[in-house]
Design brief:
heterodimer, A: 117 residues, four-stranded antiparallel β-sheet, B: 115 residues
Chain lengths: 117, 115
């Protein structure tokens, strides 16, 4: 397994367009997280899946944002009607949860950098 | 609510010197974990070290050690014998042991190692 994969690495879109990002976690990890990181800041939690169930969403996740994890494998994050304030790095992370989280931490992907022009 | 504070926006250190990156936290939870991550310019977050709230000994991982002072709510990262490749952003983060185990991050410290 080569780790957490995110595509695309970069996305430039015009304001008002919809964008979708994909995350492929480590196959044996049942937990998947999305974070958003703006320039000069630490990542902020967006949402969490355990298997295919979306169990927690941040207030940051407005109704323009939707995330899915069909069949508990890959996940997608869609932003509708993008705004300039959506420009950020979107990071995906996965973990086996439980004690493994504390032994090995999360495994993060390299992120998708979104620029809204 | 949990909060992480990193008060050093930037640190400059000579190669081979030791460096301490500060981290204080606030939580009402009794059981939690503290993490340090390294983020090079390429963007990926690299897990460095973990400390559990009930661990009595400070965590160590190669050149990294975590100076955990529970009463002071601090979890400083110590990097011994710094190398040029250590130049990166460093983030302190914490998580509850139960539930979603989502990470709450600080604002980070940019470490620059000078030759």
């Amino acid at each position: 397994d080569t780790g957490v994969s995110q595509n695309p690495r970069h996305k430039i879109t015009k304001r008002g367009q919809n964008v979708t990002f994909r995350c492929d976690p480590i196959s044996e990890h049942n937990r998947l997280y999305w974070y958003r990181q703006t320039l000069g800041q630490g990542p902020e939690f967006l949402t969490y899946f355990q298997n295919e169930a979306q169990l927690e969403k941040s207030r940051l996740l407005s109704d323009r944002f939707s995330a899915e994890r069909p069949k508990g494998s890959f996940s997608t994050l869609e932003i509708q009607r993008t705004e300039q304030g959506d420009s950020a790095m979107y990071l995906c992370a996965s973990s086996a949860g439980g004690a493994d989280l504390f032994n090995y931490g999360y495994t993060f992907g390299s992120g998708t950098r979104l620029t809204v022009v | 609510a949990q909060k992480i504070t990193q008060t050093q926006p930037g640190m400059f250190v000579q190669e081979k010197e030791a460096v301490t990156l500060d981290c204080t936290y606030d939580t009402s939870d009794q059981s939690y974990g503290l993490f340090w991550y390294k983020q090079p310019s390429s963007g990926e977050m690299i897990f460095l070290i973990y400390q559990g709230s009930y661990d009595e000994q400070n965590a160590t991982e190669g050149r990294y050690s975590l100076n955990f002072q529970k009463a002071r709510k601090s979890a400083n990262l110590v990097i011994s014998a710094s190398q040029l490749g250590d130049s990166a952003m460093y983030f302190c983060a914490m998580s509850r042991r139960g539930g979603a185990q989502k990470l709450v991050f600080g604002q980070g410290t940019r470490l620059t190692i000078n030759p």
